[in-house]
């Protein structure tokens, strides 16, 4: 085996890789959470606007056909809900990945420490 390519070097590389990935996964999780909050807020605004358009349509003495606009808003709301579901699934996968990275980091650190103590 070549120098520097033994189990210790691989463990150090894996530990470094895990340390590198953890902040990126956490940052991505925060961004997904922020987007999901924005999606919920957008959905609430769409609901409010659709309700207001229906109310205006009912109150108007002049016949304005706002139904197509209400339907467009409801279609947009449906798409927002779909995107939110996709984001929720992605965030759950990110949480599981973050948990796995943390668990693997603890396991590898314990292995490195055990290996270090055995060599003394």
From TrEMBL:
Coiled-coil regions, chain positions: 73-107
* GO cellular component terms given for this protein: acrosomal vesicle; axon cytoplasm; BLOC-1 complex; BORC complex; cytosol; manchette; microvesicle; perinuclear region of cytoplasm
- Tell me which domain of life the UniProt entry assigns to the organism this sequence originates from: Eukaryota
GO MF annotations in UniProt: SNARE binding
- Please provide the record's keywords in A-Z order: Coiled coil
Classification via Pfam families: Snapin_Pallidin
Tell me yes or no: is Coiled coil among this UniProt entry's keywords.
yes
Any one GO biological process: autophagosome maturation
Q: Which PANTHER family match?
A: SNARE-ASSOCIATED PROTEIN SNAPIN
Family according to the record: Belongs to the SNAPIN family.
- The name on file for this protein is Biogenesis of lysosome-related organelles complex 1 subunit 7
Which source organism?
Taeniopygia guttata
């Amino acid at each position: 085996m070549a120098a520097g390519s033994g189990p210790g070097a691989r463990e150090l590389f894996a530990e470094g890789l895990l340390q590198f990935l953890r902040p990126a996964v956490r940052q991505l999780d925060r961004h997904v959470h922020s987007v999901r909050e924005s999606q919920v807020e957008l959905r609430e605004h769409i609901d409010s606007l659709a309700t207001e358009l229906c109310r205006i349509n009912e109150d108007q003495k002049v016949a304005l056909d706002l139904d197509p606009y209400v339907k467009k808003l409801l279609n947009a709301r449906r798409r927002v809900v779909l995107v939110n579901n996709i984001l929720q699934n992605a965030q759950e996968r990110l949480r599981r990945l973050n948990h796995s990275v943390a668990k693997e980091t603890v396991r590898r650190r314990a292995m490195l420490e055990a290996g270090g103590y055995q060599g003394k």
